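Narrative of activities, Objective 1.

The group set out to show that a structural description can be obtained from nothing but a protein's sequence at a throughput compatible with the screening campaign. Below is one input-output pair from the validation batch, recorded exactly as produced.
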Amino acid sequence: MPFPTIVGQDRVCRLLDAYVRQEGIPSLIFVGPAGVGKRTVALELARLVNCTGDEPRPCGRCNSCRTISRLRHPDIKLVFPIGPLGRRSQGEDEGDKSDAVAATLDRYPEFELGQAQPALDSKYLIRRPMIVWLREDMARPPHAARRRFFIILHAHRMNDEAANALLKILEEPHEKTTFVLTTDSPNQLLSTIRSRCQSLRFSALGTTDVFTLLTERFGVDRAKAEPAAAFGQGSAGRALRFARRESDVLAPAAVAYFADSAGTDREILNAIGELDRTPQWLLTDTFLFLFRETLRAKLELDSAYARLNPAVAERAARSDLNYLRRALQYILKRDQDSALYTNPRLSSYSLLSALRPPQTKAARPARSHRPPTRQAK
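Output recorded for this entry:
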C-alpha cells in the first residue's frame, strides 16, 4: 500500500500512487471534512515524488523528506488564510506581498508534518498577494525538487481577487509544478477552478482509526484518547487538539456553566460576562459536544466523556429526552447560521436562553385562585 503512514484513506492513496507511477500529476483538490489527513497526504505526496533515499519511499530520512516535513524545502510552499495585513492590500503592492509572506512563514512551524493543524479564525482569508507570491515562484525553475508543490489549505477562503489570480495560473501551469487545494466546502470554490483540477474525496475516519492514531502515533494515554476520539467525530486533527489541550476545543466557561447551572435567568446573566469573551464558534462547538454526549448517556449508549465527567450523567438523568433532542437540533441550526450572530453578548444570551430546560423558563406572574369578590350593589 502506498503512503503507509496514512490511515483510513486507502482509495485516495491508491489514486495518487497511480498518478506518481504515470509521472503525470495534475492540479488536485482534496475534498473532505477538516482533520482527516488532507494536508498530511499533500505533504506526503510531495515527499514521495521528491524523495532521494532508498525504497520504500518516502524514506523519511533523506534531506528532501526532512526539509519537506519541516516546511523548509525551497520548492514546497504552503498557503493558508491569514489575518489582516499590516497595511491595506492594494493590487500587487510589494509591501502587501512581503507582509503576507512574512505572516505566513511565521506560522509554518504550526503546520509541519505530524502536527495537528491549528484552528484558524473564521474571518481570516487567502488574499491575492499570496497567489502572486506563488506565481512569481513558478516563473523560475525549481531549486532542488523533481516536482514543485504549492499546497493551498482552506482554498474556499480565497477572496475574489485571489481566486481569479489562481485561475489564471491554473490555465497554464508550469510542467514541473503541482497545485494541491484542500477544502471542506468545495462548492464555495469557483466552478472554473474546480474544472481545472482533479477532485479526490477524503472520508471521515472511523473512531477506532482515530483512537489508534492518537495512541500509537502521537503517544496519547489510552484513557484520554477514548473521549478524544469520540470528540473528533472522524477527525484525527480535532481529536488530537482535544487530547493535547482540551480547553482549546471545549470552552472552560461553557463546560462550567453546563455542569453547575439549572438555566435560571440569574445564572444566565451571571455567565454572560465569561461567555461573551469566548469565540462564538467555540461556544457552539462546546455545547454541541456536551449535549450530544448527554443524549448518548440518556439513551444508555457508551460515552467515554460521560464516564469521566459525572456532570454529564447527572444532567442526562434529570433531562427530558425530547428536550435534549430539541437542544441539539437548535445548536446544529445555529452552527449553520453562525454568520448571523455578530454581537457576542447578545449571541451568548440567546444561546443560553434557548438551551435552558423547560422547567426553568421565566415563570409568568401567578394568578390568584380566590373567587372574585362581588361588588356591593
